[in-house]
Amino acid sequence: NILVGPQVPEAMGKAFDTIPGELAEKLYAALKAGDDAGGDARGHQSASMLVVRKQGGRNINNDRYIYINVDDDPKPLAELRRLLDLNLTYLYGNEADRLLTAGKKAEALAAGRKAAGYSPKQADGHTSLGFLEYINGNKEAALRELQTAQKLDPDFKKQFDATISWEKPFKVILEDKEFLNRLFAGK
To answer: Of the residues 74, 80, 99, 147, which has the fewest C-beta atoms closer than 10 A?
Structure first.
């Protein structure tokens, strides 16, 4: 790399050390800070990120927790951020499913909140989070999440029904007629 000056790695190190959160977030913050400090003298074209965690990949046969390449883009860091958010959405969503299957509802809820936080404009994340909030006893939060999903997805009812069919713990919501009336009032 041909950096514009020593301020680039200095900014990267400072960002990495000060940003809280998981390694992928710290790496992204460092890359962005380096770019903001001048980055590569040749300009913008690509960005990549690799985070390895033992059995951390979405596929059980690899350790690639995060593996993202933006090979040719006029705004590679913006695209890297988009792909990182998408990747973390899937990772936390899978973690929520795994924890729910293990009977760890509260932990599944925490992972579901992170997944939805990384993709606030995707209805399915809000749908899953709504169910997780419901089975954790947070009916008002569940209603807010499911109503958000309704606004984002014109086929929400189809997604709602499909999610219930995939996750047996969510079927309990079908017995709560008052909640369903509030959710589907006027629909």
So the answer is: 74
Sign of the torsion angle spanned by Cα atoms 86, 117, 123, 75 = negative
Three-state DSSP state, 168: helix
| Each residue's pLDDT tens digit, 131-153 | 999 999 999 999 999 999 999 99
Give 53-78 pLDDT, tens digit per residue. 887 777 667 888 999 999 999 999 99
Positive or negative, the Cα torsion across 12, 16, 20, 22? positive
Q: Is 145 helix (H, G, I), strand (E, B) or coil?
A: helix
Beta bridge partners of 40: 3
Locate 89 and state its tokens. 């959405």
> Is residue 1 over pLDDT 60?
no
How many Å apart are CA 62 and CA 69, to the nearest integer? 17
CA trace torsion 85, 58, 142, 176 (10° rounding):
160
Query: Which two structure tokens, joined as six digits, stand for 50?
Result: 């690799």
What is the C-alpha radius of gyration for the chain, rounded to an integer number of angstroms? Answer: 20
In 10 A of CB 111, how many CB atoms?
23
Residue of 42, 38, 86, 46 lying closest to 66 (CA atoms): 86
Which positions ≥6 away from 87 have C-beta within 8 Å? 24, 66, 68
HSE (CB half, 13 Å, CA atoms) of 129?
29
